[in-house]
Specification:
Helices cover 40% and strands 15% of the residues. The protein is of the alpha/beta class. It folds into two domains: 6-249, Aspartate Aminotransferase, domain 2, CATH 3.40.640; 252-383, Aspartate Aminotransferase, domain 1. The chain contains 14 helices and twelve strands. It is globular. The strands form two sheets. The protein has a seven-stranded mixed sheet with strand order 1-7-6-5-4-2-3, sandwiched between helices. It binds pyridoxal-5'-phosphate (PLP). Pyridoxal-5'-phosphate binds at residues 81-83, 107, 109, 151, 155, 177, 179-180, 199, 201-202, 211, 213.
């Protein structure tokens, strides 16, 4: 048999022994033991079900096992949100006096956490342009740097980080936020990075009905994160976990459709005179298209573009679209548009917005499951009216 394709693994992974084809929601927060010795064993074992839900829940565990298999990881750990996962990684692995190297193009919430609570706790952070070769490695302080945090593709300019180069950094743990790609779009662990993290709220769950995060990597490291996570308490709900697993079952067809439509839309926008730039790693004109082609199986459902005329023009586009809806988030059935400068990155200082390439005319589109013909027609009518 040839090696199974990831789209097939999305259907086969994370099944329990019951034979039920759809995941079971385990609502119980606690499990009965068979006596003192059994209770003691459960209370001291790592990441095992059958004790108390904050320690592990069978529905959540099935979701974790499916993500681990898709990422080619030994294990995975789910959280109540993507931010729950990211902040738990940081707080589990960093102490006062430690140093973090972070990509300046990270998700707005992650940047706010690094500049706020991390600074307050005395964890030093150096931001680097992660798209420049060698930038991460150059900022590492040997013996002090505990974490190198990257996001690829990065939000909202779709910059691509070289995973092999990232993985060649020895000493600190290397972490990739792979939310925009999903586990079917790329597998950073295969290049040697330490951890891959997702906001499963986005493409993995894929229906705008679950708030969920997940991190995957080697078992020892996941166990260490688990030991912190049970104290932190950003625990994934079993309801969200089954929606996450439900999403994984159809991720193959959803992602293929969204990526194909995103490429069509990006090509259309790139040829329009009202648009000054389009950012999509699948376009041959993207500055890192060659790197993206090397390390991504698919280029993702998200793209952004700069409309000529700044914020006023951006407002006209958002207000004039009829099918495409103004909303944040990504990876769901509906095509969504947002203005990063006033939404996802509103908490980021104007200087940092400028370094991250977030202009007043920048609009971000999450391409959904509608026909690409209808989505493009909607943009065509609104751009004709500018
Ligand atoms: C949404 C998002 C997050 C945060 O995830 P939540 O589930 O909203 O907490 C982190 N990183 C990226 C790239 C995201 O898009």
């Amino acid at each position: 048999m040839p090696k199974q394709q990831p789209e097939t693994t999305a259907v086969t992974a994370g099944r329990d022994a019951s034979g039920a084809l759809s995941p079971t929601i385990w609502t119980s927060t606690t499990w009965q033991s068979s006596g003192l010795d059994d209770t003691s064993k459960a209370a001291t074992s790592v990441h095992t079900t059958g004790n108390y839900a904050r320690y592990s829940n069978p529905s959540v565990r099935d979701f974790e096992r499916s993500v681990a298999e898709l990422e080619g990881a030994e294990d995975a750990l789910a959280f109540g949100s993507g931010m729950g996962a990211i902040t738990s990684i940081i707080l589990a692995l960093c102490s006062t006096g430690d140093h973090i190297v972070a990509q300046s193009q990270l998700y707005g919430g992650t940047v706010a956490f690094l500049n706020g609570p991390c600074k307050r706790l005395g964890i030093e952070v150096t931001f680097v342009d992660g798209l420049q070769p060698g930038a991460f490695a150059a900022a590492v302080k040997p013996g002090k740097t505990m974490l190198v945090l990257a996001e690829s593709p990065s939000n909202p300019q779709m910059g691509v980080v070289d995973f092999s180069e990232l993985a060649s950094i020895k000493g600190p743990y290397t972490v990739v936020d792979s939310t925009l790609a999903t586990p079917l779009g790329q597998n950073p662990l295969a290049h040697g990075v330490s951890l891959v993290v997702h906001s499963a709220t986005k493409g993995i769950a894929g229906h705008n009905d679950a708030t969920l995060g997940v991190v995957a990597g080697e078992k020892d490291l996941i166990d260490a994160l688990w030991a912190y996570a049970v104290l932190h308490g950003a625990t994934a709900s079993p309801y969200d976990a089954v929606n996450g697993l439900r999403g994984i079952r159809t991720l193959g067809v959803r992602l293929a459709h969204q990526c194909s439509s995103a490429r069509e839309l990006a090509t259309f926008l790139a040829s329009h005179k009202a648009i000054s730039a389009v950012h999509y790693p699948g376009l041959p004109t993207h500055p890192q298209h060659a790197l993206a082609s090397k390390q991504m199986r698919q280029f993702g459902s998200l793209l952004s573009f700069d409309v000529v005329g700044g914020k006023d023009a951006a407002r006209k586009v958002v207000d004039g679209l009829k099918l495409v809806r103004p909303a944040v988030s990504l990876g769901g059935p509906e095509t969504l548009i947002c203005h990063p400068a006033s939404s996802t990155h509103v908490g980021v200082s104007p200087e940092d917005q400028a370094t991250a390439g977030i202009t007043q005319g920048l609009l971000r589109v999450s391409v959904g499951l509608e026909s690409a013909t209808d989505v493009i027609a909607d943009f065509q009518q609104v751009l004709a009216n500018l």
